[in-house]
Design goal:
about 110 residues; mainly alpha; 2 domains
């Protein structure tokens, strides 16, 4: 697409596309449009386009209430954390760790399990 064809209507259609077709929440769509506006600013700085299509565009970020984990949930997730760390240190894929059994534990050259 020719960069000179990007106008305010295109930006509004892009926002609608992100929210409807791509099922992005409002704040995610605003974030993507913000990234796109940075590209447009580069185009303006290099004189590739004459006017800023974002001139009349206002992004509205909605305040989101964050839900934090409870003490019980953090205890349940400690096993998940330990499995993740085990995978990191051993280089095993998740499916390989999932398929591990006690029969896979063997004695090393140092005599330890």
């Amino acid at each position: 697409m020719d960069i000179k064809k990007i106008d305010h209507a295109f930006i509004m259609e892009y926002e609608f596309f992100l929210k409807s077709v791509r099922n992005c929440d409002n704040n995610t769509a605003v974030k993507y449009i913000k990234y796109f506006s940075k590209i447009i600013k580069i185009c303006l700085a290099n004189h590739w386009i004459d006017r800023n299509p974002f001139a009349n565009y206002k992004a509205k970020v909605k305040e989101v209430e964050r839900v934090y984990l409870s003490e019980g949930e953090t205890e349940k997730l400690s096993l998940v954390r330990n499995i993740f760390l085990f995978s990191c240190f051993t280089g095993l894929a998740y499916i390989d760790v999932k398929n591990l059994t006690k029969s896979h534990i063997s004695q090393g050259i140092d005599g330890e399990k």
